[in-house]
Design a protein that fits this description.
The chain contains 25 helices and two strands.
Length: 587
């Protein structure tokens, strides 16, 4: 039974949690910059485009809202449920100072506060988009009603998505806490579920078979937000659907809110199962024999096996890294988001141009190696937790770093090679280009795995990303993810482009290092004759020289330099990681 005034208390908890999240982001300057970029950049570009084409936009006559637009709105809503649901499962299932909070206020109040906080966080990301959309509707179309309808639609869109995602996330978290099988295999099950859901998402977005499309989702009440937001503007929607969006939102909030309360009570007042209990009961005779010979840690990571030819400290670190990754899918959740974000943009462009098979193989050759390197070793010191001092004194640095690299090479390398090879088979490239693409994916995997420990040790994270989360949630620092991503994807992408489209790559290099700087310097110089103008001429000549290079020479020289430099950097960062580990003092 909730206490009187629980709604006011929940709002207070939500505002308090939101303020703490804002302070946490402000303390991390790199995270603040990367958060501000997608929040401010696209709305600024959109504002510039609206100002540039304002006269043409004002001339748009009355248009009916098509079902395709409604379906895309519903699809974005479902995608937001997926993203927020992942956050809830990975980082928001437990509260800080749980005993004190749950004895002070009711579970409904706490759950409501967390939903309010997550809604405010989501609104922060879409706030500028809403301001730009509202201003455009009012200034360009003269729609005074948009001053209320567009912000209200945004709030309803976000609130319904967050409360639905929270209900789904708590249900999954309760399943993990109550089922030994799910708890033991949650990482594998989570990957499969994420891949299936993203596959369904791409099926609707790109509709390769023509079976489904965003239009198929136009019947959902969440799709009718398009009619609600455009009411009073030249885009004529359905007034019945607009009312349906309001009623549907109220129904979703009430039903999903009741589910959130019940699931939160079941989750917070249930003793979680120990995954090892189920594993012990299900251990077969062969596994027991292996355990007796190789130890409980080796049996726990089964059916995966770390070869005996490695030294014992290296093997133990590798096994512990595998076990930690399998039991804690949070780092995978944070890493899959940029993978899907980058992959989605490339696949969207390729689908529009009808070249999906031409993009898939190069994309796999670049992104999968990065994932193999980032998955196991982007926060090694923070992942050790309370046993870090013991690890620092018991394990030699060289064996520790090799143990961190072993899972990426043992599991990631074969997966990268097989997936890239399969994608290359269906690509339109020549046999030589396919073989080179697969070989490059293997080389990039080795480099990505080798540099990950040093990057992770340079930017460690020792605490949860914000409050309201379990202390076990330690995703890699965003700075480490960004640095490792740039270090692998930028040179790796250039290598793959030189392999599959050398002519286009030569033109891009000439434009990037020659024509573009020459254009900018030319605009800055204003008149010919000065030093700036001479620099512009030099860059223009450099661009022409690059475009005049022989393709074969460019491929051989540039690829050799990049690969040799990459291997040299990998060796250097491997030694750097060993040195960092041996010199590190716990904070």
């Amino acid at each position: 039974m909730a206490e009187s005034g629980w709604a006011r208390h929940a709002l207070g908890i939500g505002l308090f949690e939101f303020r703490r999240s804002v302070r946490a982001i402000r303390r991390d300057k790199a995270r603040l910059g990367m958060t501000a970029l997608p929040v401010v950049g696209p709305p600024a570009i959109l504002t510039a485009l609206l100002a540039l084409f304002a006269s043409e936009i004002r001339g748009i006559g009355p248009l009916a809202v098509p079902n395709g637009v409604r379906g895309m709105v519903a699809l974005f809503w479902l995608f937001m449920v997926f993203i927020v649901g992942q956050r809830v499962v990975s980082a928001h299932t437990h509260i800080e100072a749980e005993s004190m909070v749950l004895t002070s206020v009711s579970a409904r109040t706490v759950a409501g506060g967390l939903v309010v906080a997550e809604t405010l966080r989501a609104l922060t990301y879409v706030g500028l988009y809403t301001v730009v959309g509202t201003a455009a509707a009012v200034l360009l179309f003269g729609s005074i009603a948009s001053l209320v309808l567009v912000p209200m639609t945004t709030v309803l869109f976000v609130a319904t998505a967050v409360v639905t995602a929270t209900a789904c996330g708590y249900a999954i978290a309760w399943l993990i806490a109550s089922s030994p099988f799910v708890a033991r295999h949650k990482t594998v099950l989570g990957i499969v579920a994420a891949l299936v859901l993203m596959g369904i998402y791409f099926l609707f977005v790109y509709s390769p078979l023509g079976v489904v499309s965003p239009t198929s989702l136009a019947w959902l009440p969440m799709a009718w937000f398009a009619d609600l937001a455009t009411a009073g503007s030249p885009f004529a929607g359905s007034s019945i659907r607009a009312v349906g969006a309001l009623l549907g939102s109220a129904l979703v909030v009430v039903v999903a809110g009741a589910l959130v309360e019940r699931e939160a009570v079941a989750l917070w007042f249930t003793e979680p199962v120990n995954p090892d209990d189920g594993a012990t009961r299900e251990t077969t005779d062969s596994a027991a024999t292996r355990s007796s010979h190789r130890g409980a840690l080796a049996a726990a990571v089964g059916p995966l096996v770390v070869p005996d030819l490695l030294s014992t400290p290296t093997r133990r670190v590798a096994e512990w890294t595998l076990l930690r990754t399998r039991r804690d899918p949070n780092r995978m959740t944070f890493l899959l988001v940029p993978v899907f974000a980058i992959g989605s943009s490339f696949m969207s462009s390729s689908y529009q141009s009808g070249s999906v098979t031409a993009v898939a193989a190069p994309l796999c050759a670049v992104m999968l190696p990065w994932l193999a390197g980032a998955l196991f070793a982007l926060n090694p010191l923070g992942d050790e937790g309370r046993v870090l001092p013991m690890t620092l004194t018991a394990v030699p640095g060289r064996q520790y770093v090799r143990g961190l690299m072993t899972p990426g090479l043992l599991l990631g390398l074969p997966v990268v090679l097989v997936v890239t090879a399969v994608a290359s088979v269906f690509s339109p490239y020549t046999l030589v280009q396919r073989v080179e693409t697969v070989a490059l994916s293997g080389s990039l995997t080795v480099i990505a795995v080798a540099i990950a420990p040093a990057v992770g040790m340079a930017f460690p994270r020792f605490s949860a990303i914000s409050i309201g989360r379990s202390d076990d949630v330690l995703p890699p620092r965003m700075t480490a993810v960004f640095v490792h991503l740039v270090a692998v994807v930028v040179p790796g992408g250039l290598l793959v482009l030189l392999t599959v489209v050398p002519g286009l790559t030569r033109g891009l290099l000439g434009a990037s290092f020659g024509s573009l700087p020459a254009l900018l310097l030319g605009l800055l110089a204003g008149s010919p004759g000065g030093p700036v103008s001479m620099a512009a001429d030099w860059f223009d000549g450099l661009g022409n020289a690059i475009r005049a290079l022989d393709l074969l020479q460019l491929q051989i020289v540039t690829s050799t330099v990049l690969l040799v430099a990459g291997l040299a950097v990998a060796c250097s960062l491997y030694r750097n990681a060993v040195s960092r580990f041996e010199r590190f003092s716990p904070p």
